[in-house]
Design a protein that fits this description.
The chain is an all-alpha fold. The chain is built from eight helices and two strands, in the order αααααααββα. It has a two-stranded antiparallel ribbon with strand order 1-2.
């Protein structure tokens, strides 16, 4: 029973409380950096790292952090891990991915997903549950933005992971819908996916007729 309860802490962030498709938070990076799957994976990895580290540290220090200054303390903790991610990404990732992430990487400091989990969960729960909660929320966010990016890249660029998905040997050529990799396309794809998952959730939760 305990194992299933702990698994639930992880699973809820992936499905029932998915940051993008259920809670509708953290939508700025979901719109801005999803022109390609590579960018989405990089942003997802950054968010998972910061979420897990920040949640774990907040849970460890929760009895030492005064209630009155908890938000500034959270921002300092989150900002420290974001700085680590920035340094590693600038040294290890290709320049084009860093350019695509742009200002949205340092803005993880005030990302409402991370602040929300620190305030509403890690500050009130133990270390293990906080770690699993952060991992679930982070993985759910990464899967969501990778799905948005996949749709936009496949249909908008005619590629997947920068490789053409239509073989050169095929007699038919795919003409990309370039609007999907532009700003209006981001809203269109995200809106359609939000509508689809909302419909699907309604179908799954609706009482079945005898």
């Amino acid at each position: 029973m305990e194992e299933r309860t702990l698994w639930g802490e992880f699973g809820k962030g992936v499905f029932a409380q998915n940051a993008v498709f259920v809670l509708a938070v953290g939508l700025c990076p979901a719109l801005a950096v999803t022109t390609g799957v590579k960018n989405a994976v990089a942003m997802g990895v950054a968010v998972i790292f910061v979420l897990v580290c920040a949640n774990t540290l907040v849970a460890l220090l929760r009895k030492l952090i005064p209630q009155e200054v908890r938000i500034p303390c959270f921002i300092v903790i989150i900002g420290s891990f974001v700085t680590m991610v920035e340094i590693v990404f600038k040294g290890k990732l290709p320049p084009e991915i860093n350019a695509s992430l742009g200002i949205f990487l340092p803005l993880i400091v005030v990302n409402c997903i991370i602040l929300y989990r620190a305030e509403s969960f890690a500050y009130k729960q133990g270390v293990l549950r906080s770690l699993l909660d952060a991992l679930g929320i982070g993985v759910g966010f990464m899967l969501a933005i990778c799905l948005v990016a996949g749709v936009r890249e496949i249909l908008g660029s005619g590629t997947i992971w920068d490789y053409p998905w239509v073989p050169i040997s095929w007699p038919v050529r795919y003409v990309p819908a370039s609007i999907l990799i532009q700003a209006p396309g981001a809203f269109l794809v995200l809106g359609l996916l939000l509508g689809f998952f909302n419909w699907l959730r309604g179908r799954l939760l609706a009482p079945r007729k005898a």
